[in-house]
Amino acid sequence: MFPLIQRCYFCTPFKLQKLTGPQLLLYGKNKTTWSSLRLWLQKDICPLSRSPSLNPVSLHATRLQGFHTSLPFFKKKTSKESESKNSGVLRRSMQALKDSPKPALYLSLAGLIPFVSVPLLMAIQGTYHPELAFAQVTYGAATVSFLGGMRWGFALPEDSPAKPDWLNLANSTIPLLFAWQALLFKDITSGAVMLVMALGVALHYDLALLPTYPRWFKVLRVVGTLVMVFSLLATALLKTISEMEQSNSTNKWQNTK
Asked: Where are the domains of the chain?
């Protein structure tokens, strides 16, 4: 019933829609008979009802188009945009690194030499030296302890933005505990992994959790931490390779017997 009413209503000419009930009766009387009104309706209304542009389906589609709104389109970042963004971040980081005081920059880079030299020397010689690996772990424990104690020196002055509260002072001792635990391990691999965890905790404190340092120092801390972590992991990898070679040689020697 509703489609029929809707069809008749929307297919009726605009003039006829304006007519009220009495006016419609009067209009029929002026034509003398209802048959003339019926003929007029058949002549003017029916062709419109057969028009494909005003059928219920097209009318419903037209209404929907009026309320149609496209979903938000999230444009995917192209490779060029991501590369430009990464290059911009790298450029700003290098600029911040260049703005760092020269003594802090040179001493920090010099402090990375014992980390890098140990796995590099063993890789060049093609042999694993347990003494050099233990010396690297010991130096790493001392470095982690220094990074933890540095927070105390930053928080103690009266005009410092970091307060000497439990958050700053107690968290500074956690990397020290990790370093002490690394020295207790007899296995170099376990000690190296413990130092990697300690370096990650110290870096998290300096960048995110506790009051931040200057930008140049944060960049310097990230670079130094990455170099120390990869050096320790390289030493652990060289130790694993050396143990595998020794086990293979021992198995071959036993098989020859």
From this structure: 2-60, 99-245
